[in-house]
Amino acid sequence: MFCNDLTASGGAELFVPAGRWLTGSFNLISHLTVSLDADAVIIGSQDSSDWPVIDPLPSYGRGRELPGKRHQSLIFGSNLTDVIITGANGTIDGQGEIWWNWFHNHTLNYTRPPLLELMYSNRVVISNLTFMNAPFWNIHPVYCSQVLVQHLTILAPISSPNTDGIDPDSSSNVCIEDCYIRNGDDIVVIKSGWDEYGISFAHPSSNISIRNITGQTRNSAGIAFGSEMSGGISDVRAEGLRFINSVHGIRIKTAPGRGGYVKNIYIADVSMDNVSIAIRITGNYGEHPDNNYDKNALPVISNITIKDVVGVNIGTAGMLLGIQGDIFSNICLSNVSLSSKSADPWNCSLVEGYSNSVSPEICEQLRSSPGPGQVCYDGNSYPVPAAQQPHKSGATRLQNPFLKFASLYS
């Protein structure tokens, strides 16, 4: 997938002039450009009846928060082609506080709505806008392909519940770049369906590029995978990540019953400041849609490379915890320097892999010399033996054949 091939050409234009424009949920059409003036603000209604109730996602089987249906996003579209949502940094404000209060008071009847959700769509651009105060997740492309998300500012109070920033979900050929995100949940999180529903629907997330992301989140991670990953996640390259004042830096979340996989993940050039747990892999995250999931459906977590990481004011360097009978394999860390406050900076179990130039000294499960058959994913299409990995900071990276970065507007 080449990012400079992600072209969208809206045939019609909806221009939003300067001013404050109150609206309920509305649907987009194909071949459309939605363009906001710099002083335009689209404001989401605080009347829940203005947000229609729609069927749950088939890969989730129910609403994410509650059984049954869910509210439609403020900006919504399905089965679309060639859609551009852009502006001169105009604003889309979901006025989410009332939804957050309903959530905390347990008075919701249906799962809260995202701010922007597109389903089954391709050739989508979302750029040069500010999204704020989402009732739930902010940007949610689901079952989509050829999606470019760039130059966004995403804001919500750090105490706001589940206000994820950007959530590519069962989507492929996605580029996310040059964004600032401050919110109450994961900054960027990749998903692909929930337990037996995600396994059955079988729509993976793959070929995803993430670069130049800065942000903070009080409750969650800078970059996360899962916990809904039952359709599989693979071939993700993330670089140029800056996280401050957050609970987690890098996180993988899964559990027995998820099935699926998270593999071929390359994360590099990361800096963290005041992060409680820098790197965390959780094999017992839990949360299931119902009691019908297969407890023997174990996830495959493999070929995870994390390199060139610097962290200051770090609580715990890492918690890497697999699943009994399901060892997470080929976890490779190199050139990682974390100024940890903990006397026991690493906690590892049921994982195996390789490490080089990691400080503080990492757990013995990530051995300092490659074991038989040990491979480390280098960001290309195929893992290479760990012994062939470049070990020094600044070593030339191998070119990723499906990721090229170029602006649509160049």
Describe what this molecule looks like in 3D.
With 410 residues, this protein is mostly beta strands. The longest helix has 9 residues, at 97-105. The protein contains 2 helices and 27 strands. The chain has a single domain, classed as Pectate Lyase C-like (3 Solenoid). Helices cover 4% and strands 49% of the residues. Mean pLDDT is 91; it is low at 389-410. The chain starts with 11 loop residues before the first strand and ends in a 25-residue tail after the last strand. The chain has helices at residues 97-105, 195-201, and strands at 12-16, 19-23, 26-27, 32-36, 40-44, 53-54, 70-71, 75-78, 81-87, 90-93, 116-119, 122-132, 139-142, 145-155, 172-183, 188-190, 205-217, 221-225, 233-253, 261-282, 300-321, 328-340, 346-349, 351-359, 366-367, 375-376, 384-385. The strands form 4 sheets. It has a 19-stranded parallel beta sheet that branches. A 4-stranded parallel beta sheet has the order 3-8-11-13, with no helix packed on it. Strands 6-7 form a two-stranded antiparallel sheet. A hairpin with a 7-residue loop joins β26 and β27 (384-385). It comes from Oryza punctata (Red rice). Belongs to the glycosyl hydrolase 28 family. This is Polygalacturonase. Keywords: Glycosidase, Hydrolase. GO terms for molecular function: polygalacturonase activity.
